[in-house]
């Protein structure tokens, strides 16, 4: 129930104790907190009532100040306040931590720390896992770069954002901007159906792995389809056409390079089950092909991002 915080917040020479909402006692030095925050500085400058006649909780002869943050948030916050020789800045990989520490930093006027916490929004793990929440937090805090980055990661997901609490942090205009960006990217990506990017990439090496029924001296048994035709009127294997059809549909909803890469395994599996010749080389060829395809998608959505300004501005 009542516990003591771990090192370095258990220092015997500490001069004040902060008690978290879940009853963990943090022994801290006023000086570090005062230097980091005008809020703490002002609080500690108030005449401290004598230990004997105040109603304050006293522990080991030190005044205990109750705070509303829980121990996890307080631990993170204090590590940011302490000099790095005593406590390293925490690596925030959970968005809930980011939100809570950031709120606490704002409350205690820890501006520099608020900024540092904001940088955690650029954390890859957070962006991959919860881009919408990261977007809402960054946008709600008017952090332009982080907002843009998070918006890019939302392209890996369907247009309709999940219901997350942080959506309360942004306005309907902000949300509209995000949906607009998503829709623009989806439109832009559909222009790739011309396959000119593919022609460009294979201009030197050729796309014979896709079009030749005789290749490397072996006959390809892949069933062919007329659905896609290349310039010499050659036709690709049906598993490739199926991959492309499915990918165009998926890209409408999730216009991101990862969407292109997601279909790779299934395409390879199909090719291997339908053709003995393609079984050998399909992984190599399709890995190259999907990388080029994904790059083309990413280049286009980057371009759209440049044209959509002020993702995090309120005008
Ligand atoms: Zn084949």
Describe, in plain words, how this protein is organized in 3D.
The chain is an alpha/beta fold and 315 residues long. It has two domains: 1-122, Potassium Channel Kv1.1, Chain A (2-Layer Sandwich), CATH 3.30.710.10; 192-305, no CATH class. Helix content is 54%, strand content 7%. It has 15 helices and seven strands. The strands form two sheets. The protein has a five-stranded mixed sheet. The protein has a two-stranded antiparallel sheet with strand order 6-7. Helix 9 packs across helix 15 and helix 14 packs antiparallel against helix 15 (276-307). The longest helix has 32 residues, at 276-307. The relative contact order is 0.08. The model has no long low-confidence stretch (mean pLDDT 88). The structure holds zinc ion.
Layout of secondary structure:
Blueprint: E1 3-4, E2 16-19, E3 24-28, H1 30-36, H2 38-45, E4 58-59, E5 62-66, H3 71-81, H4 95-107, H5 111-119, H6 124-129, H7 131-140, H8 144-154, H9 172-190, H10 196-201, H11 208-211, E6 214-215, E7 218-219, H12 238-253, H13 257-262, H14 264-274, H15 276-307
Helix pairs in contact: 1-2, 3-4, 4-5, 7-8, 9-12, 9-15, 12-14, 14-15
The chain binds zinc ion.
Residues 220-222, 237, 275, 277-278 line the site of zinc ion.
